[in-house]
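User: My instructor asked us to take a sequence, write out its structure as tokens, and then describe one feature of it. I'm not sure where to start. Here is the sequence I was given:
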Amino acid sequence: MELRHLRHLMAIVEHGSFSRAADAVHLTQSALSRSIQALEAEVGAPVVERQRGDVAPTAIGQLLLDHARRLDIATRDLERDIALTQGLELGELRIGVGPYGGSALVGPPMGQLNRAHPGLRIKTVLAPWQELPERARARDVDLIVLEPSQVAQMEDFTVRPLHEHPMVAVCRPQHPLTQGPAPSATQVFSYPLVGPSLTPAQATLLHSVLPAASRSPSPKRGLLAVECDLSGMLKDVLRHSDAVSLMPDFMVAAEVASGQLVCLPGIDLGVHVRFACAWLSARTLSPAAQRFMALLETHDQALVAHSQATP
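Assistant: Let's start with the prediction itself. The structure tokens for your sequence are:
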């Protein structure tokens, strides 16, 4: 029984059709059908059946799937361990990051790693923070960069926190709040608040520090007028509205320097954010992953030092 046939079965069940699965595994539909026929000949029974246009596994197909998923993970681990022996020059590093703060933090260390080791293949997987732990468990990535509370209670992960960064209030330069004396926190948060999807811990913290008049009367409604995990899109919202946002200072440094956005002075709610590297405790960190984390920690420390030196 060949692993590729089992992987083809996994693809068909995952995508729910032969045509979509064929696209995903880069085969023609007829070639994929022949692969499943070969698997059925091997086990002597059908492994999938069509139900109202969908494809579902038979009882023996489900049995094969359960084993195939474990075999697939074991094979990926073996391939990765072999790659570890190739070191920094010929190996591969896969990093999972969220589309908000994490993606804004990892670019410079990735560039430094590429410059020092151009033979190393670096791949990033951009996903909502809610999905990143599962991407690591599925072996899609070697390590993930996210806010530490998102994995703190997960016993199968090792977490290495980075430094705290202050959150600053940001808006467009022509915002009404920039036209007079320094505004109060109550004035700032009388305008719509926009930001990324919040973890429960972040939502609780933000709710506790906002002026009472700025809190939503309905907890179900949430704190954010616009919720968006893409940092670039969120900055566009700020540039084209009277909304305000709380962001890590390093995330908006370039836009503030170019005059596209401004940080409102005197608004210090005492809110900080920090990120962390996390990985499955059962997996050995590759030399590439260790080197990337060292570069990330150095970059993170430099951002903190710059923030402290900036009035």
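For the description part of your assignment, you could build on this observation: Residues 164 and 274 are 4 Å apart (CA to CA). Try explaining in your own words what that tells you about the chain.
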